[in-house]
Amino acid sequence: MTAVLYADEPTDKSLPEFKAEFPREIVSETKHSITIDGKPIAYKAVAANMVLKAENGKPRANIFYIAYIKEGTTDYSRRPLTFSFNGGPGSSSVWLHLGLLGPRRTLMTDEGQATPPPYKVVDNDCSMLDNTDLVFIDPVTTGYSRAVPGEDPKQFHGFQEDVETVGEFIRLYTTRNQRWSSPKFLIGESYGTTRAAGLSGFLQDRYGLYLNGIMLVSSILNFETDEFAPGNDLPYLLILPSYTATAWYHKKLSVDLQSDLRKTLDQSESFVNGEYKDALMKGDRISADEKRTVIEKLSRLTGLSPEYIDESNLRVPIHRFVKELMRKERTTVGRLDSRFTGKDADAAGEAFEYDPSYAAIQGPFTAALNQYVRSELKYESDLPYEILTDRVSPWSFRQYENQYLNVAETLRAAINKNPHLKVFVANGFYDLATPFFATVYTFDHLGLEAELRGNISMGFYESGHMMYIHKPSLIQLKKDLAKFMESAM
């Protein structure tokens, strides 16, 4: 392991000099190789922390990252560089790192279930390392990243603050490693898609750093589509196809709807765009006959009883659906991935006690990351690696008080300014956290001119929020991402 001490002079001489000792930047470099698509690839792994400083040299935060760089590259203007992060807020980058992109991945069953502990990592033959160099970023207070002593962590725990901090890391990494000439991509998952869309504008406007492409995994850009609040009927409409997919998976639909998932989803989406939308728009003006017809069709497309839908006033939020669908079996379904099921002590409860789909991945990914970083990447830290923490709460959206955050508008503006910017969106049919039809709605309302709408492409997978834990979806997603990156260059 190599320790590197950076002590740059302040760039702005008008600011008072900060004389405290600089935090140390610890860098561990190791050499590895992997075979992807039958071709051996030698690569360098860099596990390190970068100190972000104010212009007067005062340290503000330590950002932990892991980078994978293909060996033997002679022309970096042709070698893409991809920055990756997850969401939360409060999530480390472990999921995309050890689930999808990195050269090593957490061992799961092909369906995405956990193997018996102890857990381990294996070579990832679906890694994106044959297509791009990779940098996995842990935002402040996630992973090993922390505010430096004396700095209030809360200054980093907000939408705009987070975009600026991660954006500064990307600029500094790109500069230090002389990668300004490389094709550059972002990939984010869940709230990481919110961050990625925010960065699309920030990187362009603040640093003049233009991207080739952005990859969004389980996207949420318009928070109005996800907030089950009184007076906001939009989420109830947009989540219905995901309820249909879940009921289809657990065989809760009538026989005629169980044969073909895509055809069944077409019926659900058509109902949303027609009768269901009309019914919710009418509100209390809906007639008894119309309401009865809508209840019957909602029951048919969700597997819930007509009585339950009636008592819910045609509006079933996620926390009720995951508890009600299989209540007779005393079973709940997952929010991140509704293929997963769990058991609660109280089968009559209003909401599940825990998300069985998160419980299935938390242990394997946590153990795999902690073992891998120290044993294979040779990076040592006694800090707890924060996989998914609530230490960032409450997350600040102060710039968007009394309105819904909508970074789809930021993304639209970024594409208009940089018409070469391409976007790929990956969606899981069984994802109740960021429903696929809500994403379709968001991009249908992006407001791009006709000549730029081709910049957007999507993929759909028979899995959940982390669709890559499902091996068939992982294989397909790798193909889709590789094709997208090629088209974006």
Topology, please?
Blueprint: E1 2-4, E2 25-36, E3 39-53, E4 59-70, E5 81-85, H1 94-101, E6 104-106, E7 121-123, E8 133-137, E9 146-147, H2 159-176, E10 184-190, H3 191-207, E11 213-219, H4 234-249, H5 261-282, H6 288-302, H7 306-311, H8 318-324, E12 332-333, E13 341-342, H9 356-375, H10 408-417, E14 422-428, H11 436-444, E15 456-461, H12 471-488
Parallel strand pairs: 5-8, 5-10, 10-11, 11-14, 14-15
Antiparallel strand pairs: 1-2, 2-3, 3-4, 4-8, 4-9, 6-7, 12-13
Helix pairs in contact: 1-9, 2-3, 3-10, 4-5, 4-11, 5-6
Second-tier CATH architecture of the largest domain: 3-Layer(aba) Sandwich
CATH class of the largest domain: Alpha Beta
Shape: globular
Helix content: 25-40%
DSSP, total strands: 15
Strand fraction equals 15-25%
Polypeptide structure, described:
The strands form 3 sheets. Strands 1, 2, 3, 4, 5, 8, 9, 10, 11, 14 and 15 form an 11-stranded mixed sheet that branches. Strands 6-7 form a two-stranded antiparallel ribbon. The chain has 2 domains: 2-224 and 362-488, Alpha/Beta hydrolase fold, catalytic domain (Rossmann fold), CATH 3.40.50; 228-352, no CATH class. It contains 12 helices and 15 strands. The longest helix is centred in the middle third of the chain and has 22 residues, at 261-282. The chain is α/β, with parallel strands linked by helices and 489 residues long. β12 and β13 (341-342) form a beta hairpin. It is globular and about 70 Å long. α1 packs across α9, α2 (159-176) crosses α3 and α3 (191-207) packs parallel to α10.
